[in-house]
Design brief:
4 helices; 0% strand; elongated; mainly alpha
Length: 76
């Protein structure tokens, strides 16, 4: 699965919304493998704004007790 930068996503979304091209044209122009990527970016941008296009890379830290509870629930 290809990962695309936030800057590229915003550029493509803005170009689409400004009417500079359709999904297929923008895919070919920017070397994006799938039309559905751009469709998802545009839909997410319209629904949730630019922040939604950023990748989340937050590692969550779980306590020992939480991990133990998960294991116990799994074993039941």
């Amino acid at each position: 699965m290809a990962k695309y930068s936030f800057e590229l996503k915003m550029k493509v979304v803005n170009e689409y919304l400004e009417g500079k091209g359709g999904y297929k044209y923008l895919c070919n122009l920017h070397g994006i493998k799938s039309l559905s990527n751009i469709e998802k970016w545009v839909q997410n941008y319209k629904a949730f704004g630019a922040e939604n296009l950023k990748r989340s890379r937050k590692n969550k830290i779980y306590s020992f007790e939480f991990k133990q509870n998960v294991v116990e629930l799994y074993l039941k």
